[in-house]
Structure formats: C-alpha cells, structure tokens
C-alpha cells in the first residue's frame, strides 16, 4: 500500500539546507560544545505520565486515541510488509507506481465502492526507468536544486553534450492559471485545478523528462493579501520557493487587466537572483488586439528576460514555453529517475483530488473553509479502501457539503473516486465524512493537524 514516505520506509523530506548537502544549523549550546539541555522529565528521570482513563476523555479525545491506535497498527503492518518486500526485491509501494507495461503494473478498472452518506524542495534517488507515456504519476524521493550537481548524468545528452536540469516555478495572483499550466507541461495531472481563487495550498512538484534536460516545475499557491493565519503561511511558502528555484515564470491572465496584485508581485521578485520570465496565460480567451495590449502592459511592468503568451487549454505555445524554461536552467546531471513524475506522497495527492471534487459548485467563502485529510488506506486484493475526512469551519457549511439526504457528498465521492483510480491505477472504495473544525484557518493547532 502506498502511503506517506515514512510509512513506506522512506526518509521524510529534508529541509532546503539539508537537501543542498549543508550541515544542519547548531544551537548556541552545541556551538559552545555543551550537551543539549534535558527536559524536566529527563532531568528527574520521570516516566511519562499515563494517559487518563478513557472513560474520563471527551468523545473527540477518544476518537483521536482510536485513530492513533489504528495508525500505529497500520504502520507496524506496513513495516513488516516493507521488510518482506525488500527481501523479494522491492516494496509494494514502489511496484504500485511502475509503468503500465511492466509485469507488476496495477490493474485499472471502475469502482464498486460507494461513498457513505455520513458526513519540503526535493535528494537524488535511484529508480527504474522506462515509464510509458500513459502511466500513472509515480512518486519518488525529492532532489535539492543545488545538491547532486556533480553526479554523473544518466540521461541521454544532446549532440553538443549539454544536459540541463533544475527547478522552475510559476507565480502570480490567485486563479492566474498556474496549476493548469503545470499540468500541461508535465503531461499529467499533478496539481488540482478550479476556477476558485487560492485552490492550490501545497507545493506540488511535477517533473518533465527530455533527452536534453529535466525540468522540475514547482506549483505554488497564489500570492495574495492574507486574511487568516493560513493565508500568511501560504505566502511564506511561496517566498521560500522563490529563493530555491532557478527560473521564475510570472503568470498574467490575458483576460484581465494588470492590477495591484501583479504590480506587487513584480516588485517582490525584483531582488531575486533567479531568471524571471513573463507568461501571459489564457490567450485563447481574448482577441489579438486585447492580447497585444496585455503584452505591452506586461513589458512595461518589469524587465523580464522573455515574455511568452501561452494557452494551457489549447496547448498554444506550451512547447515554446518549455524550451524557454529549459534554456535558463543550469547545466546539471539528472536529478530524478526517469519514471518519476512527482515526489508528492500518494495520500497528499489523494486528499487534493477529494478537495478538488468538493470545490465544484460551492460559493462564497466555503471553498476557503474546506480541508481534507486522508485518515486511512487499506489494500484488499485489487481494491483500495480510502477513509477521508472533509473539514469545514461551521455547522451550516457541513450541511451544504453533505447536501439533501447526502446527495452532494455522494457526488463529491463519485468524482473524486474516478480521479483517484486514474492516479493509482486500482479500484477504489472511498468513505467520506464531514467534520467541523471551528475557525481552523486561524487556529495554529488545527493548521498543524491539517498539514499546514
């Protein structure tokens, strides 16, 4: 069963400094050669306090304890399976993402499961080459944009002997077409898309493999004026990515005039060392005269290295944009194995697909209030059972998501199940529950629980 990296026996994602091969920063005490301070419990050799009797816990605390017990049991089972898989030449998690033409490829098919009415930048890893064009996205370990530049490249090179590899990201205000463009270049659905602003909440990396280059596209949330703690953390995440990539593409939608948000972003990138190009998106929605006006306005906004008009929907100039991005990458050996299309954990991708389905048809502030967490995944034969929770901030929002007699929640489950089956290549049973986490966007504890 594919799961989080630590549940597959992989090391967790490293910090950018660790990924570059730098030693972690030492504390002042460590720099002075002193031993780290012990906690009060360690100083007094106190045993950790026992959990209170379950009968004294609240219903929510009892549920959380049960979840922890299930996770611990599942982790132990997976570790045992991982050890057994290694003795046979590989883990089940790795085989689940092999190319569809290989002997271990998973079967594809429709789902007989029904939803219930209840409501860091990437180290180089060795992998198997030969993924077919229609294979499901394969997850893998991350690679630093600066580390492993001195490793020998395993991919074919051009006649001039130059092979380029590096990181690029698209930035812009919300709903500028960044995720759609990322999917179009990679050739697979890596990032979820929606017409709702601020759909992207996580940094998703998609990898494009070419004979002469390897382009790692980092999809980021839209930079915006934050109104919640979540918004502040998303903006911090965007700026952190800016400092790590080799090329930045600033996206300007052609069907909207240049606004304050565009000017703000242009001023923010002025101090960056990365190459900055302008990408005028959604050109299929405007006439040539309007497009010419947008291109002129963009050219006056900032001294961009290049300006490329593109349409991710029609495919207009997508290949041209790819060539421009690759041209500005540094000479470098290959960073990822040939068959890796994303380094995101499978559960994160599944949670995002469920949230994408839940965003369809909702209005007002509800899209910003929806979060999804995959609680459990079980593999039984050719069927993968997924248990996930949808979180909202108020009881009234819970009623909207569930719908009349659970009708809307069933629609969400049906759409999400189809996308998940396309992702993992297996039949899926999806069990969804809707829960209320009051004001979770402003609560640090809730944000940590939900992965922000």
TrEMBL record:
Residues 1-158 are annotated as: Disordered. Residues 198-202 are annotated as: G2. It is a peripheral membrane protein. Its main location: cytoplasm. GO terms for molecular function: GTP binding; GTPase activity; ribosomal small subunit binding; small ribosomal subunit rRNA binding. It comes from the Bacteria. Residues 310-312 are annotated as: G5. Coiled coil: none annotated. It is found in: Cytoplasm; Cell membrane. Keywords: Cell membrane, Cytoplasm, GTP-binding, Membrane, Nucleotide-binding, Ribosome biogenesis, RNA-binding, rRNA-binding. Residues 362-438 form the KH type-2 domain. InterPro entries: G_ERA_dom (IPR030388), GTP-bd (IPR006073), GTPase_Era-like (IPR005662), KH_dom-like_a/b (IPR015946), KH_dom_type_2 (IPR004044), KH_sf_prok-type (IPR009019), P-loop_NTPase (IPR027417), Small_GTP-bd (IPR005225). SUPFAM superfamilies: P-loop containing nucleoside triphosphate hydrolases, Prokaryotic type KH domain (KH-domain type II). Residues 164-331 form the Era-type G domain. PROSITE patterns: G_ERA (PS51713), KH_TYPE_2 (PS50823). One of its GO terms (cellular component) is cytosol. Residues 172-179 are annotated as: G1. Belongs to the TRAFAC class TrmE-Era-EngA-EngB-Septin-like GTPase superfamily. Era GTPase family. An essential GTPase that binds both GDP and GTP, with rapid nucleotide exchange. Plays a role in 16S rRNA processing and 30S ribosomal subunit biogenesis and possibly also in cell cycle regulation and energy metabolism. Monomer. This is GTPase Era. It comes from Actinoplanes campanulatus.
């Amino acid at each position: 069963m594919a799961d989080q990296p630590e549940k597959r026996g992989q090391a967790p994602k490293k910090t950018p400094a660790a990924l570059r091969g730098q030693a972690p920063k030492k504390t002042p005490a460590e720099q002075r050669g002193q031993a780290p301070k012990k906690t009060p419990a360690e100083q007094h050799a106190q045993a950790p306090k026992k959990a209170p009797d379950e009968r004294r816990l609240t219903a929510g605390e009892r549920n959380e304890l049960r979840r922890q017990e299930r996770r611990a049991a599942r982790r132990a089972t997976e570790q045992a399976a991982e050890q057994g898989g290694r003795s046979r030449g590989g883990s089940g998690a790795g085989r689940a993402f092999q190319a569809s033409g290989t002997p271990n490829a998973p079967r594809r098919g429709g789902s007989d499961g029904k939803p219930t009415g209840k409501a860091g930048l990437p180290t180089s890893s060795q992998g198997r080459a030969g993924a077919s064009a229609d294979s499901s996205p394969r997850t893998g370990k991350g690679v630093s944009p600066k580390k492993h530049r001195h490793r020998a490249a395993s991919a074919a090179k051009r006649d001039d002997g130059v092979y380029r590899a590096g990181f690029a990201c698209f930035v812009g205000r919300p709903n500028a077409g960044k995720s759609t463009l990322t999917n179009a270049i990679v050739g697979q659905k890596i990032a979820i898309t929606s017409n709702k602003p601020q759909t992207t909440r996580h940094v998703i990396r998609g990898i494009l493999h070419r004979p002469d280059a390897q382009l790692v596209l980092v999809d980021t949330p839209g930079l915006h004026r934050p109104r919640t703690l979540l918004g502040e953390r998303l903006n911090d995440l965007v700026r952190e990515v800016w400092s790590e990539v080799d090329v930045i593409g600033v996206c300007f939608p052609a069907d909207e005039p240049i606004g304050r948000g565009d000017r703000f972003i242009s001023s923010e990138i002025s101090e960056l060392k990365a190459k900055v190009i302008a990408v005028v998106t959604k050109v299929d929605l405007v006439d040539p005269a309007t497009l010419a006006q947008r291109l002129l306005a963009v050219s006056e906004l900032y001294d961009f290295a290049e300006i490329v008009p593109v349409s991710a929907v029609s495919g207009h100039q997508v290949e041209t944009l790819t060539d421009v991005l690759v041209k500005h990458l540094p000479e470098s050996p290959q960073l990822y194995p040939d068959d890796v299309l994303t380094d995101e954990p499978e559960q994160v991708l599944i949670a995002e697909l469920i949230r994408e389905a839940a965003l369809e048809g909702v209005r007002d502030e509800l899209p910003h209030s929806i979060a999804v967490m995959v609680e459990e995944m079980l593999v039984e034969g050719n069927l993968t059972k997924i248990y996930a929770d949808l979180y909202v901030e108020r009881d009234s929002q819970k009623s909207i998501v569930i719908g009349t007699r659970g009708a809307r929640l069933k629609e969400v489950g049906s759409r999400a199940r189809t996308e998940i089956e396309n992702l993992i290549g297996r039949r899926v049973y999806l069990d969804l529950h809707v829960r209320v986490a009051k004001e979770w966007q402003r609560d640090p504890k809730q944000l940590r629980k939900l992965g922000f």
